[in-house]
Amino acid sequence: MNEYDVAIYVRVSTSEQTTENQLIELVDICERNKWNITKVYDETVSGTKSINERPVLKQMLDDASRKKFQMVVVWSVDRVGRSLKHLVSVMTHLDELGVDIYSYKQAIQTNTSMGSMFFSLMGVMAQMETDIRKERQTIGIKRALSQGVKFGRKDVVDEDIELRIVELRHKNKSIRYIAKDVGISVGRVHRVIKEWQPILET
């Protein structure tokens, strides 16, 4: 294998867990392959959190943009992100920076033909997951409305605005963005989203 300057990224979800076993295996892999470890990024946070809520991951991505290493070594791809959408987002960002990923558990290295195929497949699956979720949400909304279910408060917004709020929320727009778009207060948008939450989560 080629020599690399690499970063190790390890993560656990809670303080009751430890990254020690991950580190032992990954350091050993790097030593056997003569990969130069430039830094270890060790994080205790849920994998469902966004990048902005994961400071260590964010720091790693910032360092990647500064070309501080050529590859990120992880125990498993789910250490990077629990959802396919999040995982593909991070891996795409690294790919655009010219940084490879090596996953010990999956035995995948993205600069190989097998790794490239794995990465492409994840992108397809992530899009499929998003499409299925949106379809289920749309069906749920239409079913609820056909059954006469009313979401939100009569004194807050009308039905057309509620649907516009839900549509924008599906697109991951911020509360402030939605409030400005539909012309109502942030508090009212919060109340509508809270009422629609059972549908938004289907």
Would you kindly provide a written description of the structure presented here, covering whatever features stand out?
With 202 residues, the chain is an alpha/beta fold. The protein has two domains: 5-123, 3-Layer(aba) Sandwich (Rossmann fold); 150-200, Arc Repressor Mutant, subunit A (Orthogonal Bundle). Helix content is 52%, strand content 13%. A five-stranded mixed sheet has the order 2-1-3-4-5, sandwiched between helices. Strand 4 (100-103) and strand 5 (108-109) form a beta hairpin. The model is unreliable at 152-156 (pLDDT under 50).
Count of beta strands: 5
Q: What is the helix tally?
A: 7
Proportion of residues in helical segments: 40-55%
Low-confidence stretches: 152-156
Under CATH, the homologous superfamily of the largest domain reads Resolvase, N-terminal catalytic domain
Taken together, the total number of domains comes to 2
Question: Roughly what fraction of the amino acids lie in strands?
Answer: 5-15%
Largest sheet: 5 strands, mixed
Assign the structural class, choosing from mainly alpha, mainly beta, alpha/beta, alpha+beta, or little secondary structure.
alpha/beta
- What does the average pLDDT come to? 79
CATH class of the largest domain: Alpha Beta
| H and E string | EHEHEHEEHHHH
- The CATH architecture designation of the largest domain is 3-Layer(aba) Sandwich
Assembly level: single chain
Molecular shape? elongated
The largest sheet has its strands arranged as: 2-1-3-4-5
